[in-house]
Amino acid sequence: MEYTEYKSILDAALTDYINNGGSVFYMADAVKEYIFDYDNGTMPFDTKNRLEDKAVKAITEKKKLPDGVRLIKCIWHGKDRQ
Predict the structure, then answer these.
(1) What are the backbone dihedrals phi and psi of residue 19, each rounded to the nearest 5 degrees, phi first?
(2) In tens digits, what is the pLDDT along the chain, a chain of 82 residues?
(3) Which residue from 4, 12, 35, 81 has the highest number of Cβ atoms inside 10 Å of its Cβ?
(4) Is 49 exposed, middle or buried, given 0-12, 13-18 or 19+ CB atoms closer than 10 A?
(5) Residue 66 contacts by C-beta under 8 Å, 6 or more apart in sequence?
(6) Residue 9: left if φ>0, alpha if ψ -120 to 50, beta else—which one?
(7) Burial 9-43 (b: 16+ CB within 10 A, else e)
(8) pTM for the whole thing?
(9) Which residues contact residue 13 at a Cβ distance below 8 angstroms, ignoring those fewer than 6 apart?
(10) SS (H, E, C) the chain
(11) Backbone φ, ψ for residue 74 (5° rounding)
């Protein structure tokens, strides 16, 4: 999955975060939750975790996701400030 394919998912997550009262000032502190889909549904848990780690790294670097995984949704959670 290329960056251009999953960029709209990331943009939608940012828009949703802002529309639900998320702070633009503290946007860097927002927790990002990525939801993935796998080509092989019977993949072992450890293999999925390694693939997710590689995918998150690729997302932060705006690169192609590793083979076998697709980003289907991203959710931003605001971090509570005291």
Answers:
(1) -65, -25
(2) 999 999 999 999 999 999 998 888 888 888 999 999 999 888 899 999 999 999 999 999 999 999 999 999 999 987 654 3
(3) 12
(4) exposed
(5) 51, 54, 55, 58
(6) alpha
(7) bbeebbeebeeeebeeeeeeebeeebebeeeeeee
(8) 0.85
(9) 32, 73, 74, 75, 76
(10) CCHHHHHHHHHHHHHHHHHCCCCCCCHHHCEEEEEEEECCCCCCHHHHHHHHHHHHHHHHCCCCCCCCEEEEEEEEECCCCC
(11) -135, 135
Residue 26, both tokens: 């503290």
